[in-house]
Amino acid sequence: MAITGLTSRAIDVVGAAFGRERAAANLFTAKGRSYGCHALSLRSFGLLRDGGAWRKRKRPPLVGGLRGCAANPPYIRWETDLEYQVNIQGKIAVVMLTGDIDLYYTPDARRIILRCLTEKHGVLVDLSGVTYIDSSGIACLVEGYQSAKQQQLRFGLIGVSENAMNVLRLTRLDQVFPVHDSLAAALQNGG
Amino acid sequence: MTTVMECLTELRFAARAEHLQDLRAAVRTAARQRGCDEKLTEQLTLAVNEAAMNIIQHAYRGLPTGEIILEILNNDTALVFRLLDFAAPVNCATLKPRALDDIRPGGLGLHLIRAVMDEVVYLPPPPGVGNLLQMTKHIA
């Protein structure tokens, strides 16, 4: 299986957890169950090291009456059906999100983006596969943008789908985020 | 003259984020049935979704046992979306969208609703209902 676009470090990190072959398969299956994702997000999705194998932490019970802002809904989820893929390109993490980025999936998207920034990767969010995004998804992008700015890391959007662009226009954030047509264009622009 | 409103859809669901996709499907179906183009359909879907999100996050404050009712009404000139909840009454005076040049996460939902809809009003709720939000989009 071709493992294009990954640094050997990324493969090694995942490989340590899964075995190299399984790591490669999981990285590119990316039908985002929590264990089918990039190593960067393994811990943040509640995976625990248990006798040499990763296992999922039990999902905690719902806790009522907690926080209620868009980027921090009042529940905690430890696994996700969000379809995503993280691909490391040098100092840049390309985060490809797919499907509806709504209040239900935003906490996962937020965790993935912020985790990449915590690891000191710049982030390019590929929205070409996003069929719907609401204000909670937009809030997660704004948070990533601001976090990247604070850390002097790169943050941008690529391949923004028409639906997502319409929402960005309505909120005038199309003038705030660096938006690129494609990954190649983004890497060429460099800024 | 009173215009007769036809009820296209009524949907009752738990006030939880995972049910928002059902709400969006209902809005899309009604808008397409009314002859809206894809862009308007998506905008209406966004606005109604944002209003429901506000109920989940702010009216019910994340309480997962809350319920929401969506009614979609139609007449010759407009599509009307009504969202009913059973939470404590909302103080309309406190509902203000943030300025768009204030770049920070959150606070965009109300702006999106007002940008898409022609009329947004809280109506006196029927007995037993906490809030009744009515959003109207005039359609030629």
How would you explain this protein's 3D organization?
The complex is a heterodimer of chains A (191) and B (140). With 191 residues, chain A is α/β, with parallel strands linked by helices. Chain A has one domain: Transcription Regulator spoIIAA (2-Layer Sandwich). Chain A is 35% helix and 23% strand. In chain A, strands 3-4-5-6-7 form a five-stranded mixed β-sheet. In chain A, strands 1-2 form a two-stranded antiparallel sheet. In chain A, strand 3 (83-89) and strand 4 form a beta hairpin. The two termini of chain A are 32 Å apart. Chain B has a single domain (6-138), classed as Histidine kinase-like ATPase, C-terminal domain (Heat Shock Protein 90, 2-Layer Sandwich). Chain B is built from three helices and five strands. Chain B has a five-stranded antiparallel β-sheet. In chain B, strand 4 (119-123) and strand 5 (131-138) form a beta hairpin. In chain B, helix 1 packs antiparallel against helix 2 and helix 2 (38-59) runs antiparallel to helix 3 (109-116). The A-B interface holds A 62, 64-71, 73-75, 100, 102-104, 132, 134-136, 138-140, 142-143, 145-146, 163, 166-167, 170-173, 176 and B 17-18, 20-21, 24, 39, 42-43, 45-46, 49-50, 53, 56-58, 61-64, 100-101, 103-106, 108-109, 111-112, 115-116.
